Every structure is written in C-alpha cells, then in structure tokens.
TrEMBL record:
Gene Ontology cellular-component terms listed: plasma membrane
InterPro entries the record matches: Anoct_dimer, Anoctamin, Anoctamin_TM
Originating species: Paramormyrops kingsleyae
Recorded family membership: Belongs to the anoctamin family.
Location of the Anoctamin transmembrane domain: 251-818
Occurrences of domain Anoctamin dimerisation (ranges): 28-219
Segments of skewed composition (Polar residues): 861-870
GO molecular function, one term: protein dimerization activity
Domain of life the protein comes from: Eukaryota
Ranges annotated as spanning the membrane: 262-286, 339-355, 411-435, 455-479, 499-520, 625-648
Name assigned to this protein: Anoctamin
Keyword field: Cell membrane, Glycoprotein, Membrane, Transmembrane, Transmembrane helix
Amino acid sequence: LLCLRKSKGKLLNARIPEENTQCRQGLYFQDGERRVDYILTYQIKKPGSSRRHSSRLTDNALTRSLRRSRGPPPQQDPEGATQEHNLQYHEDDKRVCREEFEGNLMEMGLDLEKDENSKTPGMGFVKIHAPWHVLCREAEFMKLKMPTKKVNHGSSLVEKMNTFISKVTEPLHPKVEENRIHNVKHLSYPFSREKQHLFDLSDRDSFFDSKTRSSIVIFLKCLKILIPLQLLYEEWASYSVFYKYQPISLVRKYFGEKIGLYFAWLGVYTQMLIPASLVGVIVFLYGCVTVNDDIPSMEICDKRNNVTMCPLCDRACSYWNLVMACGTARASHLFDNPATVFFSVFMALWAAMFMEHWKRRQMRLNYIWDLTGFEDEEDHPRAEYEFRVMQKSLKKDQNAQKVWGIQGRMFLFLLFIYFIGVTFAIVFGVIVYRISTTSALHMSSDPTTRSNVRVTVKTTAAIINLVVIIILDEVYGAVARWLTILEVPKTDKSFEERLIFKTFILKFVNAFTPIIYIAFLRGRLVGRPGSYLYVFQSYRMEECAPGGCLMELCIQLSITMLGKQLIQNNLFEIGIPKLKKLIRYIKMKKGAFQEEEQREKKLQRYETDHFLEPYAGLTPEYMEMIIQFGFVTLFVASFPLAPLFALLNNIIEIRLDAKKFVAELRRPIAARAKDIGIWYNILRGIGKVAVIVNAFVISFTSDFIPRLVYQYMYSPDGSMHGFVNHTLSYFNVSDFEEGKDPLEPMHLGYRVEICRYKDYREPPWSQTPYEISKEFWAVLAARLAFVIVFQNVVMLMSDVVDWLIPDIPKDISVQIHKEKILMVELFMKEEEVKMQNSDSMAMRADKDNCNNHSSVHRSESTPNSHGSVF
C-alpha cells in the first residue's frame, strides 16, 4: 500500500530520498523495473533449522521429487525424542508445499522474488510480477473487454445539459480525473492476441490497470496486492470532503467492480434519502404546528372534563385522572396526524423510485465499465463439497446416506427455528420486565417516581432491547455462518447466498421483533377491568396510553435505530479493527530481535500492511444498510424522522467505510460483478412488505381510522369534539375481582364508583354489560377496508412508477446501439484490409512466378558464353 502510516493519518507531499527508495523497493522488484502485482505472505516458525531455507525458487519437478523422496515423520522415541522433531518435520513439509506452489506459478509464466531481508519476525514474503505475455494470455482467456478506439458521444441537447450541470456542480466533484465527465469513450472489445492491432497499445504499462492486473494474478491463484491509494485517501476517505460526490470510477479502478458497485449503491441510497428527509421533517413540523389545534389532545388536557380512569395495575395502582396523560397525548400528535398517511404513501413510492433509480445508475455504470455483455464466470465446486462427495462415494450404504441427508436438513432447519425462538423468548423476557417494573414503581412512596412510571419503563425497556439486539447480532452472524458450513453448499455463490439469507432472517427478526410486538400486540391482549389477562397468573398484560401505542413505538424505533447506527455501525467499525491491528502488532513485536525504532525505519510497506485487518467481504456492510432501509420504510408511519437520521448516519458511513477500505483493511481481491446480487431482491421484498406493514400501522396502531369513523358516523356536528369520550368505556368498580381492587381507593380525594378504560364495550347498565359494542365492529371493518385499499392502491402506484421509468437510460441505449454499429464497421474495415493485403500478396506472388519462369526460359535459350572444353 501507499506510504501513509508514518505520517500518522496525514499525507506528506514530500519525502526524503531514503523514504522514496523504500517505497519504490516495496512496489517494485530489486531491479526497480518490474512492478509488484501481488505479494504472498506466510508464517515461519523457527525451531532449529527450519529458518534455513533457500532463497532460490526451486524447480517444480525438483520439489515434487523431494516430496516423494521424503520418508514418514520420525516416530517419537519413548526414551528421549522431543516434540521439536515433529514440529521440524511439519515446517519442512510446509516449506516443500510452498516451493511446489511457487514452482507452479513460475510454470504459468509469473516472475517471483523472495524477500530474504524481512524485518517482520515470523513472516515471509514472495513478490509476484505478471509479465506482458501472461497478461495478454489471461486477458484473452478471461474475455476481458479492453479499449480499442474512441467513440464520440456527440453534442446533443442532453449532453450539453450534462456538461452545463457538471460545470455548475464542479465544487461537489472530487479532484479525480477518472470522475470527470468526458464526451469521448473508448470502444471496448474482448482482448485477443491475434487482434492486438485493434487495441490502444500506445502505453503498455497503463493498458492493463492495477485492478485488471490483480484480477489476472488472482485468477492464477495468488493472494495479495500492493497499490497506491493516496488519491483515494485525499478525495474519498477524508471526512473533510463529505459534501463531495464519490470518485466511483477510481474506486472501481483500484478495488474492482464489486466494491465499486457497493459504494455506488450506497451513494444512490444516501442521495435518495435527501428528499425523503425533507418530507419527513415537514411532516414532523406539521405535527408541531397543529398540536395546539388537535381536539382530542385538547380534550385530554382539559382539567374540566375530570375523567377518572381505572387503575393501571392491581392493588398497588389507584385511580387516576385522564389529564395526567396530557403530555403523552400531545407528543403522540407529533407522529400521529393526518400527514403521516400522506408520508406513508410517499415513502412507498420513494422506495419504488429508489429501486428504479438504482437500476438506471447500475446500467450506466455497466456501460461505462464495459460490463454490458459480462456474464458471471462458471462457479466451481467448493473444496469442502468435493471432500464431502468423496466421503460419500467411499461409503457403501447409499440409502443410509440419503436418510442422513434428510435428517441433516431437518436438524439444520430446527436449529434455525430454535435461534428465532431465542429472540422471541428474549422479547417475552423484556415484556415480563416491563410488567414487573411497572408494578414495582407504582408501589413507590415517591410521587415523582409514580408519575413517571410510563416514561421510565418505556426508556429502560428500549435500552435493554437495544443491548440485546447488538449482542445477538454478533452471535447470529456466527450462527448463520456455522449453519451454512454444516449445509456444505456446492459452489461459492450458493454458499454466499445461503449465508446472506440466513444472516438477514436472523438479524431482521432480532431487530424488528420488539417493534412488531409494540406495534401490533401490545395493548390488544389485555382484557378489561374485572377480567384481565395475566402472565404467570400474577402479572397483568400491558396497556396502551390513552393516546395510543404509537408514541411508545416511536421511542423504541428511535432508540434502536440511533443506537445501532452509533454503537454497532460506527464505534464498532472504528474501534474493533484498530484493536485487532494493535493486538497483531503486539504479538509480532514479542518476537522481534531489534529495537522498535530501527525495525520501523527498515520495514517495507507490505510488511507494515501485514498488521492490517483482513478483508471479510461486503456482507456486513450491505447488511447494516439493509436493516437501516427496513427502519426507514417499514414503520415510517410512526417515525417520520427516520430518513433524516439515516441520511446523517450515511454521510458519515460513506467516509468511514472509505477510510476503512483505504487505511484499515488489507487490499481486497478485485472481483467483477454487474449488479449487487441477492441484495436487490431483498430490497424489493422489504419495499413490498413495507406497504403492508405501514397499512396495518396506520389502521391498527394509530387513531387515524377511529377518528375518521367517529367524525363521519357518530359525531353530531361532523367534528372531533367528543372523540375521547367515545373511545372510553365505563366500568363499575364494584365488579372488580376479589383482591384486585386498589389499596387506596380514596387516592383522588373522593369515592370512585365508575371508572373509564379505553375500549369499545357496552356500559355496565346495559343488557349485555362489558360485551363488545357495535362501534368496535364498525371500526374494525373500516380498518380492514383501509388496509386492503391502501395496499392495492399504493402497490399499483409503485408498479406504475416501475413501468413509466425505463430500466436503461435513453442515452445509454443509443450509445450501446452505436457501439455495435461501429464495431461492425471496424471489423468490416479490418476484413477489407486483409483482403487487399491478400490480393496484393497473390498478385506479387504471381508476378514473381512469371518473372522466375521468364528468367528460366531465357537461360535455357541463351548459349553459354564461356564455352566448354568438351
């Protein structure tokens, strides 16, 4: 990597000659001409003579003969043989394997050079260089598209507008040449050694860029690369350029298409969060402005109503006045108002437009990166799968194997269900905590504590849920990998997709189970005064506040979302890699034989980079963004500020991930990809589910539907006056079960005979006391009707958006068609030149034959001028 570390986070524009020499020696062979494309690292243990290995790269046949000539490992002498002999043998065996592998690489045409002066204790390094003929050969085999000739994009109105926009937004673009908009693009064609004259080979050193060279070398089974990243560090990985666009082309050039597509997707997602955040803030401000005009909140806060509510718990709790819920009711209006319905529809359409926008952006990148005709390479079987197949083939009883296969799949499925059940059990435990804590706080003698019971229980329970979610996220990541390994998938692609699916399901259930409980279950399994439902026959189920459960749902969403983003996604990503790097450095330092300052001065760049964190794939990066996308879309009706918090997080997340890839991780293997794979299907699935979830949140969790039913069916004047009284039922306190009535019935200073509770039930003086009333069924029918209408209308609108916006931009489709025509013309001209050359060569050959024939005829007819003695 680049010489970045010695500056302690700051790039030095000028270095002394010795440092430049060290950097060049780290990036080139000892001759200073051949550049290092990859570096192999291996561990060396030094028990005795295992350190004494030849710096000369041995011939492959010789190493194979050495392995055949070696005998079995020495048997341990019971009288005095030590374990060091066995260790010595295994180290020698590893050395022979390495030499055989290096010989295979040399047979493929790669140049290798060992570093015999490594100052990193216990580590060895092998530099690898791919010569020109190897690059050409493998590029042809891999069918890599390389530039042939330039294609002018023309000067249409769209191009002129793009040029004007690029000039206006010039301060927002990074100072990277690859990121600038040009009107010229190279026509690309799969590389062929026989047609090298078609390609732009004016500069062979830069014809195959570093990403392509690394892809070719990894195709030949090598592992690690060195590449300069100073420009990315300055224009991408710095927090000071957070307002600029990402240099996606340069990211792709250095890290490959797969990582480039991830950051391009993250940039599009963050960009699309801007309008969603603005609309969410407007909806929240609308709630703030209209809170004083909300009639139900005004009725709850009006002390003149003097509504006496039934106790919230048995015995310890007493009667209370509805006015005590004034603050909760006013706060609920900030998120439960008519604007939230509009915002839910908007976010559903936003999700559809985001997916369409990404498809268009992805297609544009495919065209720019020459991936339009790219097809995934054949996925070979994994070594673990081949080993399992070999084991099965060696066993005779195939029927027993089939039975075991079915039993194994059932076992894995039950394990998967078990871990999902663990999440449900933990949520149930938190519910028990809330119920017991509520009862305990109501028994407190402190009036301040009793008045803040709801807020205390809500906040502490949400924090407990957050801690459990963070812990289980780490556990479930390891569990998903373990279950996938047990399945032994056939190919790497199948392994990755199954791992992603299991990880997503486990983490999704872990993150959203507490939220689903609050949104759809809390307050619905309560019962009524005199006939409550109990947990463990002693704890009463929780009730919602008079203003509804939407406020508590908002608290749970905000704490979970902000906590995950701040703690798990940011602090963990910064702290854990640095901690692991420090631990590896300390372990290496223990085996050092020189002082730290001398070692630090003489360490090569690849030796220093060995202490960096290994690259673990893009699955964790995608996963945290997918879960965030769920928070933004699934329950957005209850938390309109979610897009804003996601936007602020992602602005930091982009630079954090960039800094991690540039300075904290080892160089990832460059991989080609034309899309984001299974993640796109997961995003579409979340978008579809979000429509249904928001429909149920609006109809069942919020008071939007009950208010509409009251206003248009039961209100005498068509207004919301009397709505609170309409939603509260009556209960005669003499109907309390024995031992369930309050210990302090005179808590309010007067004797209570009738108390109120939130439900649609008949009063005690009716013919059917405490039975469900007709209003309940009317509201339920309206809720179900709203769910059906909302779901179908919004999904229809999303499909219309999908249909109206083409997947391929018009200018890209025109350019693709133009390139096909130019490619045909190029080959036609090539064939004409070939035919002309062949005709001229044939005419020249005929002329030469005629000349030879005439010369022979003249020589036969002309007498010998010198004569003969005979």
